[in-house]
Amino acid sequence: MSIDSLLQDFPELSKEAVENAVAESLHEMLNRTCENAHSIHEEDRKVQAEMSGQAYKPLLAEGASTLEYVPMQVFKDNIGTNGLDADKWRATIQAFATDKFEAYVSSLPDPAAAKPIAEAVERFKASLSSGVSALAGSDPLVVISDRMANRNLDGVSSSGDGETLPEPILALSKLASTVKDDVSLQGIILVPLAAILIPLIGTTAYLELVTLSSSRHGHWFRTVLQSDQAAFDAAVRDLKDRIDKETADLEKKDKDNRELRDKQRRKRDERKRKKDKKRKDDEEKAKRKDNCFGSVVAIVPLEGTSGDPRGYAIRIEAVKENLLGDDEVLQKLKKITVADNIVPTVGATIYCLEIYCHQVPSGVKAGVWVNLELNLKDATPATHEPVIPAEGDFKDGLCWVEVTSPYASFVKGSLSNFGKVDHGYKVTVDMSKIKLDIAKTALDKLRILFERYNPIRQTITNFLRLSGVIQKSSLSLDQYKTADHFVMANVGQGAAGWIGSMAQGWGIVSDYGFGKGDRDFTSMIDDLLYKTRNMPVILSHWDRDHYRIADSGRAKLVRGTDMCPTLRHWVVPDQPLTAKAYELACSIHADGLIECCTADEYGPAGGNWRILRCQSTDWDDKNNCGALALVIGLNSDDRPLLYPGDANYEYIHNINQLNGKLCYVIATHHGSEASLKVKYGGLGSSIPQSDPHAINPAVYFSFGKGNSYGHSVEKVLKLYKDHGYKTPYATAGLASDKDVLIACIGPNMQNMLPNARLIPGVPADVAVYHDMDSYFSFMEERFKASGITPQARQASSTPPVVADIITLDGNNKDALEPYAVRDEFQQVVKYRVLARKLIINNCPLFVKCESDAPIQVLLQCEDIELHASAGASPSAPESIPVVLFDVKSGDPWEGYADVAGDVMVGNEGYMGGFLDLRVVGNWLVRIADKDVYKSGEIEQQGLHLQVQYQGGRGGDGEKGARGGVGTNGSNGTNDECVVDSYFDPWSATTSYSYSVKAGAQATPGGNGGQGGQGGKGGSPSVFPVSQVMATQSKVPKQPQSGSSDPSFTVTLALLSFGAQGNGGPGGDGGRGGHGGVQGQRWKAKDKFFDPGFEELKDQSFKSAGDGSPGPQGFQGQAFEGPLPKYDDFQPKVVICATEEETHERFMEEEFI
């Protein structure tokens, strides 16, 4: 063995490290041997003391520490030179011992005392060279035991006679005798014994010299051959490295698994958070379903007949609070622009309220937003009588409500708001719940959607006035030059009339409103829509009682026809718009037929009438700021009439020029005192004086029967009389609801109008009554003869809200993506397709459902075509699949449960979607290029639709935790090879015995633990019930029991859908523990024939055996809860009696 061979065995170590390890080993071995020799020497001294009868005194005082015999530095200094060469080491140790003795001799102060010691040292040095040869060929163990057993050292002569010891030992004994018991030499006296032991260095074992026992009858010595500790340590290290690596690998695997589980748990928790938020939002919406946000339009004082104030009417335009949480509305908020694509606000229900109270709540004023509760559950129709009486007290909170809802026009492709019913409803509003506390975020949204002064809202007027996109359209007034009469219709507490010319055969509507709740206006509105068709409209201001006919419930039925109010030219004031006014303005603007009047005076060149713009600078005062008044009859032989709308007279442009020139005046604001109050003058001081030469100058009042605002007509009438208007007329006094009041403007007009009914005491050339039917019958002929054509519609760049034709393809998985509506989490919650005609090829449409928000597939159209290459299934070949909802199953749990944690239950399947199909008109179903059903034709197989679902399986439970790792076994220890020798002094013979002292046995590894049980399975998906709406005349009858007639059915088909989640697999059994490493194993050979030891290599350094892996854990249980009863999820069919009813319900916001 050499240093180089050690380096080859341990390539990972440096030469320096190997040399240091060898030096330490040699140092330990030699010093231990010297220590054992010292013990033998002390035993000799003790025996000699006993034999001589002298007291025994140890060289080393009791409790003193043993000095180091050969310092470590000697080995470190010489390892590089000596390596493992025994001869070199022997020389090194001999030199070290000699130097020690010589140094000792030199230290003695008495030369006489030092002389014999110096001679002994020289004799010792001379004998060293002969010591090796004397020992050659001898068993070192025998030499040591035999020679050291000879205790009679003091009697040995140095002359050579009778000497029994080899020279080195004799020299040592003489030296010991010379120095006697000098304790200072105890660290070097026995060192020369190493000269005898050095030849053993480099063998596989070294000797441990131990004194077993000693007496005067004999001496026993035991020599233990040390086993290969280095090989054992290497095996232990290998096992430890393997265990450490496996432990590290398992810890990393568990760490990665925990990170994966944390990620999956976060995803699960995020999903739950979204579900909880939606649930809470839905609960909150349900609680607050009656809460509204409203913009205060105006506050109108109420007056008694005596003129005394009796309270207020608060006008509010409101929307449901929940509207601001509607995902489609929120998405539209992001798309509203102020450029050339101004679109109607939201297509939502708007509630127009007039709340009556004695005191206005604190802080409530025109232009502010309030919240309030509006419960229509107990609403009653507001017909035949005013909401509050004209006289007497009333209850605070009485309210008139007009409900206007979205209505889709298939003719124009527009979406506008119209009244659901024209009479409105009576309800009671809790005044104490009218508050100003609206969250800023909600207020910001409201301002964007509806605010009267928001820049987006203001741009509508700028757009109408300045935009070149609509090619600014102006009414050609040249064909409307000379007006000869003015007509006032009996529309209650509102204003509707027109200026006309019997001579020229034309008419222009002057305001187009009607009052609230005085009576049923249905017939009146129908007549006005029809009989004023194609007439242009001049709007005095944007109050609903002046334009309500245009967006009434009856007006929506004539959308797209020549009776449609928005297909006429409108001249409107330049004013801020409320939500309702904005909807109407946008509808008119869509055809380029709206003109914003910004000129102070506007009219036909050479004509006898003018539009006069009001000059108030108060932007809040829409009665006066920018409002439009009319003066008619400017020719010299006319009887001039002034129609101020609701304006104060003093704000009308150049009103002073009309002073003393008027024959008629329409009482402003339906006869209210409010518009007669002059800022720097007395009440009514701004009323222009009548023409002092006029015959029967008159004032006309337009208000409803009962005068719901309680205007003090008597008091106001006196003010008008004081200004020369002697005769009053009122629409409320007309005999019939369809009567009209006609003021004669031009000369000889009464001779042209047949069947006029005279007003008692009034000349026929001043004013007459007339029924509407006969009047328009007469005017129809005049209109036709005039040759005046309606204003041409202008091209618009605004895309239609309702598309003409939309085609979808079921083969395109993303066909519905352009129509997606997303929530705050960017999850699709709705696909909305709105078209006149909807064509779906390659049915079914594919809808991916990957969230817990139910996706509504809302398909709204007038006509529909469904095409499929095959029927829904072989068993239902006549059915056509409309939609296939591909519902995501519960997310799988990857990895396994934590050893100390709970195992996860399978995730539930995601929410499925639902079909909401609304068709007003015709159906066409074609399967495999064959018409299966077509509305209006003979029914062959009926109309059968199918809504399909796939996926939606509950997620499997999580895999169980892994079993625990078995306990690692303990390591054994090496066997010890023992040689016992006995020296018998009487026979002078030594006997030997060989034995093996068994080392500790290694123990096997423990078995791994059982894996944990898997998690329970998750619940399958569910989905809302689908619905299909159709018109009765367009589809077959629904199936009747016992009937085989063709029918209309909508069925549910589950295609491998809704399976429960399985239990998760059991966890893996734990790894068995590693067995400990056995020590080096020996057996003693036959002491007579083959004395010595033999290594049992098949056992040495082997594993005691690894433990068995633990058993697999048990599989978890499948989903245990009640499974959904999918039979209860069959689609609903809604059949409306008429197309009008279907169209009315077509845009309902709530799911039917």
Strand tally: 43
Label the overall shape. elongated
CATH second-level architecture of the largest domain: 4-Layer Sandwich
Terminal CA distance reads: 98 Å
Strand content: 15-25%
CATH class division of the largest domain: Alpha Beta
InterPro entries: RibonucZ/Hydroxyglut_hydro (IPR036866)
Biased composition (Gly residues): 1005-1018, 1060-1078
Region (Disordered): 254-286, 949-974, 1001-1023, 1059-1079
Biased composition (Basic residues): 263-278
Brief sketch in words of this structure:
By secondary structure, the protein is of the alpha/beta class. It contains 19 helices and 43 strands. It has a nine-stranded mixed β-sheet with strand order 16-15-14-13-12-11-24-26-25. Strands 27, 28, 29, 31, 33, 34, 35, 39 and 43 form a nine-stranded mixed β-sheet that branches.
List the helices and strands and how they pair.
Elements: H1 3-9, H2 15-52, H3 72-82, H4 86-107, H5 111-135, H6 140-149, H7 167-179, H8 186-189, H9 194-197, E1 207-215, E2 218-225, H10 229-287, E3 291-303, E4 309-320, H11 327-335, E5 350-357, E6 369-373, E7 380-381, E8 398-408, E9 415-419, E10 425-428, H12 440-450, H13 455-466, E11 485-489, E12 496-501, E13 506-512, H14 522-531, E14 537-538, E15 570-573, H15 579-589, E16 594-597, E17 601-602, E18 609-615, E19 625-632, E20 641-643, E21 664-666, E22 698-701, H16 713-722, E23 727-730, E24 739-744, H17 749-752, E25 757-758, E26 767-771, H18 772-786, E27 803-809, E28 820-822, E29 828-841, E30 845-849, E31 856-868, E32 880-887, E33 914-919, E34 923-927, E35 930-934, E36 943-951, E37 976-984, E38 989-997, E39 1027-1031, E40 1048-1057, E41 1082-1084, E42 1093-1095, E43 1132-1136, H19 1139-1145
Parallel strand pairs: 13-14, 14-15, 15-16, 20-21, 21-22, 22-23, 27-29, 29-31, 30-32, 31-33, 31-34, 32-36, 33-39, 36-40, 39-43
Antiparallel strand pairs: 1-2, 2-37, 3-4, 3-6, 4-5, 5-8, 7-10, 8-9, 8-10, 11-12, 11-24, 12-13, 17-18, 18-19, 19-20, 24-26, 25-26, 28-29, 34-35, 37-38, 41-42
